[in-house]
Write a structure and sequence with these properties.
This protein is an alpha+beta fold. The protein has helices at residues 25-41, 74-91, 114-122, 140-146; strands at 13-18, 43-44, 47-48, 51-56, 60-65, 100-105, 108-113, 131-133, 148-150. Helix content is 31%, strand content 24%.
Amino acid sequence: MLVNFDSLEDTSKIWIYQSNRAFTENEVAEMSSNIESFIGTWKRHGDDLKASYQIRYDQFIVIAVDENYNEVSGCSIDASVNLIKQFEQKFAVDLTNKLNISFKDNNSINVVSLADFQNYAKQQKITSNTVVFNNMITNKADFEQNWEVTADKSWHKRFLSINI
């Protein structure tokens, strides 16, 4: 059952899929329509899931499920991952590579390999003040408070030249 994202509990489970490039306006419209259809019929062993989504910066797909309503199962998670895999194929994007790291450079979002991120940090092109996206967060409260933060407030700080 599709609900407003803001109405979900802070403990709702979150999955973040980061694209290696920005989506076009048409891609966002088609993805939104497909995600809404999917969530509208998303079930766990026949029981509705109370869920929502957001597409942020035309580059991140965020799916959330209120597990206080019904917990997700392996099969229901697989179904959502299959949807994301369909997007990867249809739009020729990489949404499931967990070794890509994203950060802001002024108002641009950059997605680079972990190795490149480490090199940029060594060269101090990425500093403690660089805004990074912590796609490892797992609940809505963390998403709202700790997803988009400076590198010194995220796991990314381990790569900074001067550890804080």
